[in-house]
Amino acid sequence: MMRRYVDVRSHTLHLAQPLSAEDQQVQSMPDVSPTKWHLAHVSWFFETFLLSPALPDYRPFHALYGFLFNSYYEAVGPRWSRPERGLLSRPSLDEVLAYRRHVDGAMARLIATAPAERWDELAPLVELGMHHEQQHQELVLMDIKHVLSLNPLSPAYAEASAGRPAEKAPPIQWLLFDGGLVEIGHEGPGFAFDNEGPRHRVWLEPFQLASRLSTCGEYLAFIEDGGYRRPEFWLSEGWAALQREGWQAPLYWREADDDGFRLFTLHGERPLDPAEPVAHLSFYEADAFARWSGRRLPTEAEWETAAAKSVSSLSGPAFHPRAAVPMSGLQQTSGELWQWTASAYGPYPRYRPAKGAIGEYNGKFMSGQMVLRGGCVATPAGHARPTYRNFFPPAARWAFSGVRLADDA
Ligand SMILES: [Fe+2]
Q1: Spatial distance between the Cα atoms of 390 and 69, rounded to a whole number of angstroms
Q2: What is the DSSP string of 21-47?
Q3: How many angstroms is it from 277 CA to the middle of ligand 1?
Q4: CA of 140 to the centre of ligand 1 (A)
Q5: CA separation for the pair 125, 54 (Å, rounded)
């Protein structure tokens, strides 16, 4: 347990390594948190749910950090306003790093000295704290991408690795699934968030699923066909969001003077590659694109049924989604982009949130959001599962979100 704890905690610092203290201070919109805030908040989680209640004589690092770094737990007490996290120039980055070391020292004592009879109750919370920190590792990358994208210098978070040159994506194969009475949801050993269960039965009509994600080239055809000017493809709230926000293309697409679009990435700005998966779509854009294509988005039960049978991902995390490869069967189910589904985020049958503050982790967000499945380049290795339910409001675009088409069979 201690070994994994140390690995997870050090990976967070590794992700912050390329960033200056100034980079780590900026909050570019209410949904984005400063890197420095993430570094402190994940430590607060261990302090609040493990150290204060369970380590005898634990002394919190600072009496007010609970107020500054509580994210949304009403049961734990009041908190600093989310859209104003970027105003917290104090504590300094060095002080936040000292806070992390304080928490790590105390967690080492807790893991080494917790009495066996309490460990059954503590171990799942340590596990949850580590998975929570991994979720924030992805947020660190999503958030800093938005921060850096607003800087006219188009700074790169990371140097581009020598990737494959642009090439044509293989054509979509339409994979047929029988449907029928299937089971979805997490069950059995291994960690899962509470919203992934209970496992339960679902009836599926026969359906088809695209073998790969939709590409920038395919999405460009939608734009060029007037996709952003033709309300017939859009849900009413999506059309309103398009007009309100002035959407003309996915987030991070930049219209160039002569040669079409350029793209802002964590590697800086570069020409759009038509073969790579289209990213940073809202649910509304994914849905409109699917309608224009004469298809639809998959439900989460369809997605899980298909992905549980054939999990495929390319080698390891990266900072930008990679093009599909010629192969037969389902690919890009994990490791490139989260995939919007047609399913609203709600409780599975017989779902009950945990008692107490920790019950606020997932359950209270089950309204007004849509489910995404898969995992993305920014998801830490080993964090995602076929049963994993990610969720965002339908107009959100700053996650690494893309689209896989589905259809009736
Ligand atoms: Fe959190």
Answers
A1: 22
A2: TTGGG---STT---HHHHHHHHHHHHI
A3: 28
A4: 11
A5: 11
Q: Tell me which residue of 155, 151, 148, 147 sits closest to 32, measured CA to CA.
A: 147
What secondary structure letter does DSSP report for 196? G
Residue 391 sits at φ, ψ, to 5 deg, of -150, 145
| List of residues 6+ apart from 151 with CB closer than 8 A | none
User: What's the CA-to-centroid distance between 132 and ligand 1, angstroms?
Assistant: 6
Nearest to 236 by CA among 279, 280, 281, 287: 287
Q: In the chain, what's the furthest Cα-to-Cα distance?
A: 69
Q: How far is the CA of 131 from the centre of ligand 1 (A)?
A: 10
- Can you tell me whether residue 191 is helix, strand or coil? coil
Question: Cβ distance 111 to 1 under 8 Å?
Answer: yes
- Evaluate the CA torsion angle 15, 212, 176, 313 in order and state its sign: negative
Output the CA–CA distances (angstroms, integers) from residue 296 to 55, 276, 290, 308, 342, in the order listed: 51, 20, 5, 21, 8
In this structure, the number of other CB atoms found within 10 A of the CB of residue 36 comes to 26
CA of 44 relative to ligand 1 center, distance in Å: 9
Q: How far is the CA of 70 from the centre of ligand 1 (A)?
A: 8
Interval between CA 182 and ligand 1 midpoint (Å): 33
**389 CA from centroid of ligand 1 (Å):** 16
Q: What pLDDT is stored for residue 165 in this prediction?
A: 57
CA of 78 to the centre of ligand 1 (A): 15
pLDDT of residue 149: 98
Report CA(40)–ligand 1 centroid distance (Å): 10
Task: Round to whole Å and give the CA distance between 89 and 78.
Answer: 20
Tell me how far the alpha carbon of residue 340 is from its chain's centroid: 11
Q: How far is the CA of 136 from the centre of ligand 1 (A)?
A: 7
Bridge partner residues of 101 (DSSP)? none
Taking the chain (409 residues) in consecutive chunks of 10 residues, what is each chunk's mean pLDDT? 96 98 98 98 97 95 96 92 97 98 98 93 95 98 98 94 71 97 94 96 98 97 98 98 98 88 96 96 98 98 90 69 92 95 98 89 94 96 93 98 98
CA of 32 to the centre of ligand 1 (A): 12
Distance 41 CA to ligand 1 centre (A): 7
pTM beyond 0.85: yes
